[in-house]
Specification:
Elements: H1 9-15, E1 20-26, E2 35-40, E3 43-49, E4 55-59, E5 73-74, E6 78-80, E7 87-89, E8 94-96, E9 113-114, E10 116-119, E11 122-127, H2 142-145, E12 149-158, H3 162-169, E13 194-199, E14 202-207, E15 217-222, E16 226-232, E17 244-254, E18 257-267, H4 270-301, H5 317-333
Antiparallel strand pairs: 1-11, 2-3, 3-4, 4-9, 5-6, 6-7, 7-8, 10-11, 12-18, 13-14, 14-15, 15-16, 16-17, 17-18
Helix pairs in contact: 1-5, 3-5
Organism: Streptomyces rochei (Streptomyces parvullus)
EC number: 1.14.13.-
Enzyme class: oxidoreductase
């Protein structure tokens, strides 16, 4: 495997946790018959799609001399390295060495291939280490599996550590300040008390004195992939469907960059579904991007050591809990050294 338990816990904590699924990029980034180089968990990978739509994810490294396979040619069911023409299929097996037919490289699986699934318009991949190469069970977020729920995927890349993006989602109180001029988050008190409520798959971080007014609760879920669910009240002008939900995930690109995935959803059917989707694309989507832009500007402006020079209070219990969970996971996944205290 490319990812290794020999990495320190600090490296794993900075670049992304292993032995779980992560979102990588939207499915639309790789058309049938196309390929794309991506970076995830600090490593370079090649997404490779056959003309029939079947998708593979390979380490972007030719097994011959290490040249990037992403510079090569798409040959339908395999990739030919640009440097010496070595051909590798979607499983990472060398199928041909044109410069020396019959070479002992042929028939050997020499390139790491990751399990992939496509969910809600996004590509998810399982990132294991050498001790956990087989993918863990993946249970999809209910809003992405329910046919009665209509969702839109919004994707962006931010120049922030991945954990800053996740911590932002476990911080409901920022909605009343950072997003106070939003069309959906202007209401409610600017003071609150919070509690953590445990669940079988994670925990809720929620206000104890306000519900259904602003960004009042969030649930962190571990179901083979880490994701959050939250709900934002919607005014009648936003159309049918009741509260507006968000499923959020984050892809650690490297130590300083993150791919953020937000599925905005509502439970609607029949003509109401069409109405909601029309209103979203023509009116609401632009407003939502304005809210995301506010998050991006603040997070990208924070220093890299922001989480080491803080004075936290009760509203930050959800963030503290998240850090402890992730630091413990990084420590368990490393045989090198424990994660530094933060």
């Amino acid at each position: 495997m490319t990812l290794s338990t020999r990495d320190s816990a600090d490296h794993i904590y900075a670049h992304g946790l292993r032995n779980q699924w992560h979102p990588v990029v939207p499915s639309r980034f790789v058309e049938p018959g196309g390929m794309r180089r991506v970076t995830a968990l600090g490593e370079n990978w090649l997404l490779f799609r056959k003309s029939d739509g079947a998708l593979s994810m390979l380490a972007d490294r030719c097994p011959h001399r290490g040249a990037p396979l992403s510079l090569g040619k798409h040959l339908g069911d395999r990739v030919a390295c640009w440097y010496h023409g070595v051909e590798v299929d979607g499983a990472g097996t060398v199928t041909s060495v044109p410069g020396l037919p019959g070479c002992n490289l042929e028939g050997k699986t020499l390139v790491t291939s990751l399990p992939v699934r496509e969910v809600g318009g996004a590509i998810l991949a399982y990132f294991g280490d050498e001790e956990h190469p087989e993918p863990v069970e993946l249970t999809l977020p209910e809003p992405l599996a329910d046919e009665e729920i209509s969702a839109f995927l919004c994707y962006a890349e931010w120049d922030v550590p991945w954990r800053f993006a996740m911590e932002n989602l476990l911080d409901p109180m920022h909605g009343a300040f950072l997003h106070s001029e939003s069309h959906t988050m202007f209401a409610g008190d600017t003071s609150a008390k919070f509690r953590i409520r445990e669940t079988e798959r994670g925990y809720f971080f929620e206000k104890t004195d306000q519900r259904g007014v602003n960004f009042d609760w969030v649930e962190l879920c571990h179901t083979g992939v880490d994701w959050v669910d939250l709900s934002i009240p919607y005014p009648p002008s936003a159309g049918p469907g009741g509260p507006f939900g968000i499923v959020g995930m984050a892809c650690p690109v490297d130590a300083g960059r993150t791919g953020v995935f937000f599925w905005r959803y509502r439970k609607v059917s029949d003509w109401q579904r069409d109405t909601w989707r029309f209103l979203y694309k023509t009116l609401i989507e632009a407003r939502h991007w304005e809210v995301l832009e506010q998050d991006r500007v603040v997070l990208e402006s924070m220093p890299a050591d922001a989480d080491q020079r803080e004075n936290l209070y009760q509203h930050d219990l959800g963030v503290v809990r998240l850090r402890r969970l992730y630091q413990a996971q990084a420590g368990r996944q490393s045989k090198a050294q424990p994660v530094s205290a933060r």
